[in-house]
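Collaborator request, handled under Task 6.
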Amino acid sequence: MKKIIITFCIVFILFTSFIIFLLSVSDDPDGDPPVKKQKITYNFILLIDLSNRVSAKKFSDQVEKDLSLLDQIFNFFEKKIASDLYIYAQDSMKITILPNNAASSMSSELDFTIDYSQIGIHNKRDYFSQKKKLIQSELNKIYQDASKKEYLSADIWKFFKEDLSYYLKKSNPNTQNFLFIITDGYMYSKTNICSKQNRYTYILSRNLSKFRNNNEWEKLFDSNDYAFLSVNKKFSSLNVLLLEVKPLEFFYNEFDIMKKFWSKWFKEMDIQQFEILKCFDNMNRETYYKNIEAFIYGKYERNENNK
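Structure tokens returned to the collaborator:
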């Protein structure tokens, strides 16, 4: 009888301890239910400058570099949708080419959009590989054509002023909007050369010369409020990567001046997360790509080697 009582007590103690354990792990210390982690979706916007920066005569390797970079961004996008097993993905990608006639000259009817929120579950697994192949084939043709025609301008300022808002996805607070701008950093359009006081829709030698090789250039810049002309827009939900910036090497501070113009413009548009990277002539391609991936996943760290 004594053994039965001892056994009963042991079982009771173990059972009570188990119940207490279950209650302790199922309830928050403050009595709040556990918070369900929200799913993040990506919206990639690729803005490609096909002005004379891709001229086959002037920069023979730029087309190959751009296409390689674009392929890598496609890979980053695929990594995201693969993490959702494709069928659960709701991410999107849109490619825009400037100048507009660079794409229209090819009479392409291809839609440069990949949008998983619009694709039925049974088609999602093969959708990306099929659409990627079509887009990359068309981009190759457009690049080759642009490299021969040497378009003089790409109106990035106007894109921010008139078009960018329509590319952003704002209805879902868990969507992260990324804008990748592939350009040499010299913003210019022959149909949009405007200025007001010390603000411009462009940066060229005419408004950079006073800063070049000038040790007091930052003081001059700040005290006279030099900048890009405002587009009177706010893009607080936007992350921006300015890629392939190619400053003239004749001036030791050219890249710093360009960064000052672009950074001030981004901040005035309430863009908090942005990075400006030189063309990857200045670093190993693998390192360059890793910097881009780190920015996408919020792990990018600025240092001198990234400049």
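The cover message to the collaborator said: "Confidence is low (pLDDT under 50) at residues 8-29. The longest strand covers residues 41-49. Please let us know whether this matches your experimental observations."
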